[in-house]
From TrEMBL:
Membrane-traversing stretches: none
Record GO terms (molecular function): oxidoreductase activity
Keyword Oxidoreductase: yes
SUPFAM superfamilies found in the cross-reference section: NAD(P)-binding Rossmann-fold domains (SSF51735)
Keywords: Oxidoreductase
Pfam families: adh_short (PF00106)
Family to which the UniProt record says this protein belongs: Belongs to the short-chain dehydrogenases/reductases (SDR) family.
Designated name of the protein: DHR13 reductase
Length: 112
């Protein structure tokens, strides 16, 4: 939704292979279908990613590096606000992990 969806729509209009990295399979697939229909670009795909889980970030990065021949653009725009104080299973604060640590780790892993 929001900025991420607008960026994905613009990239798809430019005929780019576009990977939507989403936490929710249902919402992500709905966005994929909407973007494909609006742009005529079939190369819009969904991959699940929760930046609040470093294990999810690592799994996503491994899959992208294995499956994609190249990566030209990375847009890190996921984030949360107003969550109650929560500690993740990895013993990290949830908001800090989702907004900072997860995207940072993702960038570092995709740079190789």
């Amino acid at each position: 939704a929001g900025i991420g969806k607008c960026v994905a729509m613009d990239l798809a209009r430019r005929n780019a292979r576009t990977i939507l990295a989403c936490r929710s399979r249902e919402r992500g697939q709905a966005a994929v279908e909407e973007i494909r229909a609006a742009t005529g670009n079939p190369a819009v795909v969904l991959r699940l990613l929760d930046t609040g889980s470093l294990a999810s970030v690592r799994a996503f990065a491994r899959a992208v590096l294995r499956e994609e021949p190249r990566l030209d653009v990375l847009v890190n725009n996921a984030g949360v606000t107003g969550l109650p104080f929560t500690i993740t299973s990895e013993r990290l604060e949830q908001t800090f992990t989702t907004n900072y640590l997860g995207p940072f780790l993702l960038t570092i892993l995709l740079l190789g």
